[in-house]
């Protein structure tokens, strides 16, 4: 008789590519059989074999208030009892738009949709429609969902156009995307000097969370803002992950930079599909049916999903919420660094708000190249040892981690006990 997770994984692979509905979940980077989760509460998950885990993935960000928070579950149940979907305007959409514009002041108009991919794809199309230009700039190591224009890797030279990073993306499409090095303001200046008049927009994770956690270097975001303003390009902050995690107003509030457009997701859905694209009124007025840039969605602004998002944002706004989750993330990072030091392992960690990064490297990386110097095989051994001890980290050395309001001192203590053994095993 196979263990239940293995049995479910075998069945899943018979009918779902790699047995998963999003690649990272397949555990291909770390190896082994992924747990099939059955229920969650607060900071904890239970798998199909009844094992309990402390959750540091939080569904890749959304569960910042903790799993199955009563206020969120009740809001969803009440909304679902009224209707699941109309495909027509609802008051909940008005409430969400007003809330987002209040919490993120750079949002003058906002369009709700269902995924971060949709939000980034729409922001790119808006930048192109607003400027009449085609070139988009992104940064290596940043992920903005799986729209064709954004599945692009660096070209042969820093100023040349990109090549597809996925099969199925035409070279002609990738050629309109330039990929630069994150935190390299000199490259940005050189590109704008050479091709500024061709650039429709720059999209950036203001704090990078998809190459593990990498903080913006001093002056980097300011350089993007200055170059885009100078050349009339649209500055897009992809805050799908950083929104309400780095700070309630997002990384833009923390670093004091006003982007032209912002994408949001994850937390604003509280675990259900909600995302948003918004920003300057003159740009957002280009979107259909006001303007010529088409965008649409059957379940955009879904009332049940918005009930989860609105209830979550209400919790996030509560006094002391951000302070508590930031303190928890700091405590985790400091504790892990101390355990690694005790084990004599090259390791570093850092947090910003409720996001954190763990690195098998002496000091936190400040670029994609430095992230690639991390000891990924050692992370994989550490990951497996922690999972076996009931601690669920992101199943990749190249992902940020997350805490929630529900994580408490007992969770941190259990995590550090598991880490003491796991660092020794990963040595
Ligand atoms: P979705 O389409 O997955 O809702 O959002 C795409 C996206 C856009 N922008 C940023 C900054 C993101 O982090 C994401 C999605 N993040 C990944 C985590 N690395 C989602 C997990 C997954 O792909 O399964």
Distance between the termini: 34 Å
CATH topology value of the largest domain: Aspartate Aminotransferase, domain 2
- Are there runs of 5+ residues with pLDDT below 50, and where? none
CATH architecture of the largest domain: 3-Layer(aba) Sandwich
Can you tell me the CATH superfamily of the largest domain? Type I PLP-dependent aspartate aminotransferase-like (Major domain)
Q: Keywords, please?
A:
Aspartate Aminotransferase, domain 2, Aspartate Aminotransferase, domain 1, four-stranded mixed β-sheet, 427 residues, binds ligand KE4, 2 domains, alpha/beta, single chain
Folded structure, characterized:
Helices cover 38% and strands 16% of the residues. With 427 residues, the chain is an alpha/beta fold. The protein folds into two domains: 4-68 and 319-426, Aspartate Aminotransferase, domain 1 (Alpha-Beta Complex); 70-316, Type I PLP-dependent aspartate aminotransferase-like (Major domain) (Aspartate Aminotransferase, domain 2). A seven-stranded mixed sheet has the order 4-12-11-10-9-5-8, with helices on both faces. Helix 2 (70-82) runs antiparallel to helix 10 (303-317), helix 3 (91-103) runs parallel beside helix 10 (303-317) and helix 6 packs parallel to helix 7. It is globular, with a radius of gyration of 21 Å. It starts with a helix and ends with a helix. Residues 22, 24, 60, 115-117, 120, 143-145, 205, 209-210, 238, 240-241, 265, 399 line the site of ligand KE4.
